[in-house]
Write a structure and sequence with these properties.
Elements (H helix, E strand, L loop, with lengths): L3 E8 L4 E3 L11 H11 L4 E5 H7 L6 E2 L2 E2 L7 E5 L17 E4 L13 E4 L10 H5 L9 E4 L3 H10 L4 E6 L9 E2 L15 E8 L2 E7 L3
Parallel strand pairs: 1-9, 1-10, 3-6, 3-9, 6-7, 7-8
Antiparallel strand pairs: 2-11, 4-5, 10-13, 12-13
The structure holds NADP nicotinamide-adenine-dinucleotide phosphate.
């Protein structure tokens, strides 16, 4: 059995994840970010792709107000790595992450304490996500918050591996194409994924939309 997967993203009102230069902090309002931290606090692990590690160097910790939840209560970080080396100074590498990788990790010049799961996809460049996910419960991960980025979101959507989504729409219009929520092209209407909206809530200047991805 794989963990339950919740896809979470902050979007502009016109559906963009980040600007063309990769900047995305902060698209949503402080109220939405607080809510997102509570969501983090409700799962065993938080996952991002190597592209997000390179662009944002996130911490993925639960921080509510001035307080950071003590380490034992923090969700475990999970990184989906590719064939390129991860930045050795990345903050997540100091948090004992689980790393899903297509093969042995390239030496980074830093001693990293991590649980590495090798799960090569068919061409050996990317991770076979389903094969990686089913090995997570043995490491105590039964619920997972998927926090990006666009390429990883697309892989999860295409593989049907995300169960539900929490989308925070911030009070911004991108006004053009930067980075869409899902990498890739939407070719024709019938390729769209039907979802069920299960709730809509206002959080300060943002809107939280919950969706069931397997209606
Ligand atoms: N607004 C938000 O909520 C939010 C949240 C997170 C990120 N972001 C933004 O998203 C951008 C980063 O997204 P991104 O698309 O460039 O990168 P990404 O989705 O974070 O990571 C993609 C990378 O993961 C590795 N990978 C290995 N197996 C994979 C698989 N099966 N499927 C997909 N990826 C796999 C590859 O690494 P290699 O490249 O090493 O091969 C791939 O390039 C940044 O601009 C960031 O600011 C926004």
């Amino acid at each position: 059995m794989r963990p339950t997967v919740i896809l979470k993203a902050a979007l502009t009102l016109d559906g963009q994840l980040a600007a063309a230069d990769g900047t995305s902090q902060w698209i949503s309002s402080p109220e939405a970010r607080r809510d997102a931290h509570r969501l983090r606090g409700s799962v065993d692990a938080v996952m991002v792709g190597a592209g997000t590690v390179r662009a944002d160097d996130p911490r993925l910790t639960v921080r509510l107000g001035q307080h950071e939840t003590p380490a034992p209560g923090q969700p475990r970080p999970v990184i989906v790595a590719g064939r390129r080396a991860l930045p050795p100074q990345a903050r997540l590498l100091g948090r004992g992450p689980i790393i899903l990788a297509p093969g042995p990790l390239e030496a980074s010049g830093r001693v990293i304490e991590a649980s590495v799961i090798e799960a090569p996809g068919p061409r050996g460049e990317a991770v076979d996500l389903e094969a990686g996910l089913i090995r997570l419960p043995a490491l105590g991960v039964e619920s997972l918050l998927l926090e990006g980025g666009a390429r990883l979101f697309r892989s999860f959507l295409d593989a049907g591996l995300a169960d539900r989504g929490v989308l925070y729409y911030g009070p911004l219009l991108a006004g053009g194409t930067g980075r869409p929520l899902f990498r890739g092209t939407w070719t024709t209407l019938e390729d769209a994924h039907p979802v069920r909206v299960t709730s809509v809530r206002r959080l300060g200047a943002s809107i939280r939309v919950d969706i069931d991805l397997h209606p």
